[in-house]
């Protein structure tokens, strides 16, 4: 039985437990949009909010070595998830004697903790990409001023709900999403990528 960590909170949010809106998974096409922009020298990737391994599995499909970690190891049916190392990204300090240091971090961070995940990624001083809502709130403006760059699809990304619904099954996102990147060398603040209805069939 895992040792319970002391509860930690940030802005009233318990960072040791996932919340309902944090459990939406990433369709394959969202990861596919990012892959062409991943620097060629990156092979080892840390997916630090792996959920059901949707991003991790897709990156492995493209030949990347992926370390998948998450704080949630039990699925909705009570089964232990395979291929995920129990780790709280926000409280973890990567040590080289535990993990091979990754070349990059790529994840869809919990909705309620996206800024905290961004701040933690910055601490590691390696390239990263976070799939988050497109927004011009204060911290994102500051991130852009500090060198972050955005990859923005031309259509909304419909996330997979805990019940398995996606845009193709009647669930459509009510906000636009983007990959917020740093260290990818895009050389411009905003890069728009085509996302067609046909591409969105690859869930």
What does this structure look like?
By secondary structure, the protein is of the alpha/beta class. The chain has one domain: Vaccinia Virus protein VP39 (Rossmann fold, 3-Layer(aba) Sandwich). The protein is built from 4 helices and 10 strands, in the order E-E-H-E-H-E-E-E-H-E-H-E-E-E. It has an 8-stranded mixed β-sheet with strand order 5-4-3-6-7-9-8-10, sandwiched between helices. It is globular, with a radius of gyration of 16 Å. The model is unreliable at 1-11 (pLDDT under 50).
List the helices and strands and how they pair.
Elements: E1 9-10, E2 13-14, H1 28-34, E3 44-47, H2 54-61, E4 65-70, E5 85-86, E6 104-107, H3 114-124, E7 128-133, H4 138-145, E8 149-153, E9 177-182, E10 190-193
Parallel strand pairs: 3-4, 3-6, 4-5, 6-7, 8-10
Antiparallel strand pairs: 1-2, 7-9, 8-9
Q: What is the CA-CA span between the terminal residues? A: 34 Å
Mean pLDDT metric: 85
Count of helix runs: 4
CATH architecture: 3-Layer(aba) Sandwich
* Rough outline: globular
Taken as a percent bin, the fraction of beta residues is 15-25%
Kindly name the structural category.
alpha/beta
Strands side by side in the biggest sheet: 5-4-3-6-7-9-8-10
Count of folded domains: 1
Residue windows where pLDDT falls under 50 for at least 5 positions? 1-11
Task: Please give a quick description of this structure.
The protein is α/β, with parallel strands linked by helices and 203 residues long. Helices cover 17% and strands 20% of the residues.
